[in-house]
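Minutes, methods subgroup
Present: GH (chair), OT, SY

1. OT presented the first of two proteins processed in the latest run. Sequence and C-alpha cells recorded below as shown on screen.
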Amino acid sequence: MIETITIDLTDKWRTRFLVYSEALLSGPYLTQDCPIVIISDFDLPPSHYHVDVFIERDKFQDIREILYFTLDVINEFISQISFVSYSPSELISAISICPHEVQVDEEFEMTIFNGDYEINKVEIKNTDLVNRVNHEQDGVYLNLLHLLKQALSTDALELRFLNLFATLDFIADNETVEKVVSTCPHCDKEIEGFKATSQFIRRTFQERGIDAFHYNQIRKLRGKIAHGSGVRSMSFYSELLSSLAILESVAYDEVIKRGPLKVKRNSKIIAPIPHTTITAVKVSNPTASLPSVFGIVNYMFSVASASFTGLQNAMETPPDQFSGTFGPHPTDRGLEVPREAWPY
C-alpha cells in the first residue's frame, strides 16, 4: 500500500535549502511534523535539489528562530535519507525564508542568505604546516585535528557542539590518570571505577577562569543534545550559541597547547548568518512565458551571530595586529535576489 501525504501549505513560512543527495528524492515528506517538499529544477547540477521546509506563520517571530529550527529539520531529514539510501547527502546552503505564497499587490517580508559574504580567507604557507607527523606518537593529536575539522565542517550547531566537546573528552580520556573511587555500601571497601574524565574537563574550564555556572550549562547542553531531549526554542538556540563560543575557545586552545600547529586567525564568528531582510510587493502573477514579478520596497543587511575573541594561547598573530574581517558588503554591488528565493 502506498502512503499518500496530504499537506496544507496555507499561511506557512517556507525556508528553501539547496541539498545534494545521490538518493532519488520526490516527496512530499514529513520530519518533526514539518512538510518537506522537493523542487526539481533543471538548472541545477545533477543530484542537487531545492528542498522546502514549511512551518506555521505564528510558530516563531524571529528570523533566527525560523532558520535554526528549519536547519534542525533539514539536517535530520538529510541524515535519514543518507542512512536509508546508503548514499552521500549533504546540505549545501540556505537560500531564503519567505511566505509560501503571496497575492498581487500584497506587501511582505522575506530574507535571503548571502553565502558569498565570507570571512576573509587565511593564506596558508608551507611553513605553517608540519612535513611529517609520527603517527605512533602523535596519533592522539591527529585525531584531535580531525574532530575540530568535523566541528567546523557542519552547519548543524548541535553537531558542532558535540564534536567540540568530544575533543575535550578525547584529551581527558588520554591524559587522566586518577579513577573515580566509590565505597561499597555493604563492606565499606573502596572500588576503583572509570577514569575521572569529568573532573579533568571541569579543571580545564576552571584554569581558564570559566565559572561553574557556564561550565555546568555547557555540560547540561551536551547531555541534552546527546540524548535528544529538550524543546528547541529560541532560548535553547541562544544558550547553544553562547555556550559554543566558550566551548570552541577552550577546545582550540587545548589542542594548540598539545601540538606543533598554530591557528592563524584569533578572532572568530560562531555560526554567522549573513542575511538581507527585504520588504517587497508582488506586482503580477506568472504567465505562460514569464515568472511572477516582484518589486523591492526596501532592504537591510545584517549578520546575526554570537561572536567572541578567543584562541589567545600560542597565537601566531597578536590580537592588536589581527586584520581579518568580513569581506565586501554584498549590497555594495547592488541587491541581487535569485529567482528561486522568491515566493509563489
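2. SY then presented the second protein from the same run.
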Amino acid sequence: MSLICLVTAVGLSACGGGSEEDGASPPTVVASSASSSPSATPSMTPSAATSGTPSVSPSATLPGATELGNDPKARKELRQAIIAMLRDNTGTYALDFGTTGDGVQERASFRIRPRAFEIRRYFSSPEGTYTFDFRAVGPSAWMRSVDKPGDGPRSWPCWVAMADLAEGAPDELGAFLTSEVARTQPPNAVIAASYGIGREYTEDETLGSIRGTIDLVMATSLMGSQAVLKLGLDPQSKATAPAYFDVRNGRLHGYTVGLRGLFLALEEQGADLPVNPSGMVPGSITVTFDDPGSPVSVAPPEPSQVVEIAPGTESFGDEMEACGDRQP
C-alpha cells in the first residue's frame, strides 16, 4: 500500500500534541482580521510551483533517536534560530515529501500573527497529480481543487469553507476542522519547526548543520492532517522523531525528517503501519523556509467563488458545477 494513499489531500492546520523540552515555545496565534489588500502573495502564482512529482530523498541514513548526542551549544543555536523565525512572523516555505511519482508537495506563504496563509498542495500518485489550494484569514479557512488527472472537468473549481466541509466529514475529522487549533494556528510546517530540539552538530551540510529531534505528532501531520488519525498515533503523544535542521547565520532555513526514522518512531508508539520501517525505500519530508519578514497579504475568496453548502448533501455537486460555470 502506498504511504501517500494513507493521507488525504486536506492538509490544513495543526493536529496538536507536542514535546517542547526547553526549545522555543510553539507559536500562539491570536485570530483576527487579515489585511484588506486583495492581492495574493507572489509565491502562490502558478509559476512559483515546481513539478508535481517530488524528488527522491538525498539520504538513505537518517539517525535514530538513540544515536543522537546532547550538545548544549547545538541546542541553543537551534532554539535561537527558531525564535528568530517566529519573530519574523512571515515568510514562505516549500515542503517536499515522498518518492518519484508518489508524494506531496506544498508551496506556501504565511503570516503567524494575525493568522493568514495560502498553500498550494500537489498530491502525486501513479494516476497523476491532484492540485489543491488552501487559504486562511483569521479563524476562517477555505479549500478548492484546482486540477486532477485525466481529461475530465476540474472537480472543485470554487472554494469551500472548511467549516462547511466539516459538516459532511466523519466525526473525528469534523471535530478537528472546527477545533480551536484548526481555526487559529499557522500551517503544520511552521508549527513543526517550532518543536525542534538541537542535539548535536553534523558535517552533512546537504541535510543540515544540526541533528536533533522534532515532535512526532507534528512530524506525522506533515504528511496530511489525517495522517495522525490514519496511522493510529495518540494525538497527545510526547514522542519525538529524528530530524536534521539547516541553520545558517542565526536563521533556520529548513529541516528534514527521514521517513524511515519517522516510521520507526511511529512503530515504537504502536502506530498501525502499512510497511515494515526496516525495509523502507529511502525517502524524506523536507521543509525549506525563505523570504523571512516579507510582506504577506491574503484576502478571503470572493463570495461568488464560494459554495456555501456542505459536501454530502444532494445539491452539492450541482452547486459546485454551477459555481464553476460562472468563473472566467
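Chair's summary of item 2: DSSP finds nine helices and twelve strands in the chain.
Next meeting: continue with the remaining queue.
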